[in-house]
Amino acid sequence: LTFHEGALTIKGEKKQDWNPEQHEVHRVERRYGAFERTLNLPPSVDLEKVSATFKNGVLTIDLPKREEAKPRSINITIS
Fold this sequence. Notes:
- The chain is mainly beta.
- Helix content is about 0%, strand content about 35%.
- The protein has strands spanning about 1-5, 5-15, 35-40, 50-55, 60.
């Protein structure tokens, strides 16, 4: 993961984990190779508190909002 000018870039590579020549296969889909995705982040994201975890094959990215960007409630007095 990289941050640059308000954009989050995710890069990775999935390698082929078995050899189709060793198995009797009629068709193999290509689900391996390098990939890259770039997402523009809104200005309300607190870049200092961004965290990421990778567990059981799932990448989880936490993008918390800045305190001033969080919604707040205001009590209204009716007279």
